Predict the 3D structure of the following.
Amino acid sequence: MDFVTVTLKLLEGFLTTCEIFFLTLVSALPLGLLVVFGSMSKFKPLKIIVRGIVWIIRGTPLMLQVIIIYYVPGLVFNLPLLPRLIAVFFAFTINYACYFSEIYRSGIESISKGQYEAGQVLGMTKGQVFFRVIFMQVIKIIVPPMSNEIITLVKDTSLARVILVAEILKYAEEFTAYGLIWPLFYSGVFYLLFVGVLTLIFGKIEKKLSYYKV
Amino acid sequence: MAYLDIENFCKKFDNTEVLKGISFSIEKGEVVSIIGSSGSGKTTLLRCMNFLETPDEGKMTLDGERLLQCPQIKKEKESVLRSKRLNFGLVFQSFNLFPQYNVLNNVTLAPLLLLKTKIKELKKSLKEKKKTDKTVTSAYIKKTISEYKEEKKKEIDNDAKLLLEKTGLTDKTFNYPCQLSGGQQQRVAIARALALKPKILCFDEPTSALDPELTGEVLKVIRSLKNENRTMIIVTHEMGFAKNVSDKVIFMSDGVVVESGSPKEIFDNPKSEKLKSFLINLENKENI
């Protein structure tokens, strides 16, 4: 087992890690917006239901959710098993959409009422007030907590291995069967680099948004 | 009939009656100051006029048009309220500029969004016409709309720049609100409100959030608007300003209009005990 073989194997796993990460991110960001519209709705039943769902999703381990989505349809309803990666994708997206929605909510609620009223008085529609006035301010406020959550997502991808998705950590661990410990540390380097790049990107975004104060 | 007529505005929040039957009228081009201690309902009155709150009772007529009649107003559609709101402009105590837009865009945002709606309507009507009229082609529609859009956009831009000149902010056109002083921000807010050409401009304590040395520049702008014959309603604690600029002063206390009249009548010859003690209190404060 030389360095090159290990690197290639880990890279293969890392590709899956990236896949889970990006797919989750791209779908959970907009889905979270839908969830927050529900949880802040003036229509009480919808609000209660959505907040209940968010409570359940945030209150149980992501690993459990992955297991349930993968096994329950087959065991209970006799449906064919979902492809592993798809099951992971569903579980992660739902889970992260709920977390994101709460971050969105904190951002939306921190915008002063005066901003809404200023938009209203200027004859804007509710949609215009939200997307042209409120939204950009919310984005600025939520960048730091979002970057935190997104960095957590990088590392949460390792939970996918609970249903045997071959992500980087799974490969790294398999090498221990050959008495190799160092690939474990080596896999940590992949995460570190990935998170390093994300940190730089978020720093750039924060800087770019520093031209105005909310 | 007066230009603006407000009849019997009543408003309750939970169990506190904030407005207890407010009635007054304003002529076109008049500047009216509303004074009174805090909690007397001045701000709520302005907010009701701007459709930010719905009064429980009352009627409002502007320029012969019935804008508000309780209780029907509660069932009014959002889009109807929106167009009614445009009759009034409102300048807030806390400016409420949009921080992510520069000064120019703060002023042009609302007119541009309104233009967008207008263009949509124009497109729709042209498309209707196309069905019956052969001379209306798709190319013609496209050309008409793009020409209309260009023209209107230029107009909005020019109007905004004129307004910024008038409020003395030309050199701040591309600055962001966080780079401006409070007085400058409030002047932008005035320009922003004027950009929609409201029939009546309302000010809700426009200088209360400002450092004393910055109030002058804002009051100067408001005074210059008076010279243009704008109809304005100013809720203010600046008695000197109310005295000098207004055509009419309304004194409110505990949700009712206690006294109203010319500045001379109100300040030099107060009749009611409440107004007398309000004015004496203010005077005493100045002597501390």
Notes: DSSP finds nine helices and ten strands in chain B.
